[in-house]
Design brief:
By secondary structure, the protein is α/β, with parallel strands linked by helices. Helices cover 39% and strands 15% of the residues. It folds into two domains: 116 residues, Aspartate Aminotransferase, domain 1; 219 residues, Aspartate Aminotransferase, domain 2 (3-Layer(aba) Sandwich). The strands form three sheets. The chain has a seven-stranded mixed sheet with strand order 2-8-7-6-5-3-4, sandwiched between helices. The chain has a four-stranded antiparallel sheet with strand order 9-10-13-12. Strands 1-11 form a two-stranded parallel ribbon.
Length: 375
């Protein structure tokens, strides 16, 4: 008897496997293919010969916790207690899983805004709780009236993803005001804010849940060094939570991983002394704009991209096929892999949109665009 009977192989795995089989350019999975900062790899090379290979404390390497506190204060003005309000995790997915397992109980309800990343629903189901999927508007703004209507005494958590994967939307001040009104009306609801792309926003500045003082006592914010420093394979993230919630999250965390990779933690701690996270968005904005320029003569219509390193595109001028079939044909006939947006919806809502990852070197983007413009 399966605990997750409706969950199969991830669409990311399927598309990447097909991309490899057909030797297609892989713009499906969200990982960069350009080199990591040499300053970071030099730090790793030096540390590899030092005594940094044994278990670190369960919550994280103490100097790294302190530097995360400084990073959050510099970015958002929030003052944290490193020893009790920060946890280093084995990637953001593990942070989300541990949080939901720790705080969500049998028969609780968790509101998930679709299109949503696939790591939200599984831990809810494994907690014997009920995921409540609410679709964003077709322009990917939240419908706060609908969200409020589904809030009840059973609602334990609302999950937001900002900047949003897969759409690239960011929440506005008005969105946070609406969310705050709902949460003040329902004081038992916990907010889980997935902000792994927080340092990759463009024309508008990212607004973090860290800045909402009235919500901090019941808010968990998840971040990712993997996304921020394009080291996704390291699987190192962190979460921030008030101490009373963090105590429960740590109970689960210690039995999932106990402590996170020691070499990675020490390396990131040293790297934070010499890198500026403020430089990151400019680099990705150049890539977004370049990819957009390359596709200007294609038949794809690019949707607004306000953050993340994903570009959503409509293919409605090209085909009436459903988005899964279109993405498969894109690989087999045209040699480019993308992700169908319908797979981010619980009900499979299909608007004939697909997602490209532009976190690639210029040569890869140019080769992919040449193929896409020929369709």
């Amino acid at each position: 008897m399966s605990k997750l009977p409706n969950i199969g192989t991830s669409i990311f795995t399927i598309m990447s496997k097909m991309a490899a089989e057909y030797n297609a350019i892989n713009l499906s999975q969200g990982f960069p293919n350009f080199p990591v900062d040499e300053r970071l790899t030099d730090i790793v090379a030096t540390l590899a010969k030092k005594e940094v290979h044994q278990y670190l404390p369960m919550a994280g390497y103490a100097p790294l916790l302190s530097k995360i506190a400084v990073l959050v204060q510099d970015s958002y003005g929030r003052i944290l207690k490193p020893e009790s309000e920060i946890l280093v995790t084995a990637g953001a997915t593990q942070a989300i899983f541990a949080t939901i397992q720790a705080l969500v109980d049998t028969d609780d309800e968790v509101i998930i805004l679709d299109p949503s990343y696939d790591c939200y629903e599984a831990p809810v189901l494994l907690s014997n709780a009920k995921p409540i999927h609410i679709a964003l508007n077709d322009d990917y703004t939240p419908n706060w009236e609908t969200i409020e209507k589904v809030c009840t005494s059973k609602t334990k958590m609302i999950i937001i993803n900002n900047p949003h994967n897969p759409t690239g939307k960011i929440l506005t001040e008005m969105d946070f005001e609406a969310l705050q009104k709902i949460l003040l009306k329902f004081p038992e609801i916990i907010l889980l804010s997935d902000e792994v792309y927080e340092y990759i926003t463009f024309e508008e500045k990212h607004i973090s849940a860290h800045t909402r003082s009235q919500l901090l006592n019941r808010c968990i914010v998840v971040s990712s060094f993997g996304k921020t420093f394009h080291i996704t394979g390291w699987k190192v993230g962190y979460l921030v939570a008030p101490e009373h919630l963090m105590k429960e999250i740590k109970k689960v965390h210690q039995f999932l991983v106990f402590s996170v990779n020691s070499l990675s933690q020490v390396a990131i701690s040293e790297y934070l002394d010499i890198v500026s996270v403020q430089e990151i968005s400019g680099m990705y904005q150049e890539k977004r704009d370049y990819f957009s320029h390359l596709l200007k003569n294609s038949r794809f219509k690019l949707m607004p991209c306000e953050g993340t390193y994903f570009q959503v595109a409509s293919y409605s001028a090209i085909s009436n096929e459903n988005d899964v079939d279109f993405c498969k044909k894109l690989i087999t006939k045209h040699g480019v892999a993308a992700i169908p947006i319908s797979t981010f919806y619980a009900d499979g809502k299909d608007l004939r949109l697909i997602r490209f990852c532009f976190a690639k070197d210029n040569s890869t983007l140019e080769q992919a665009a040449k193929k896409l413009c020929s369709i």
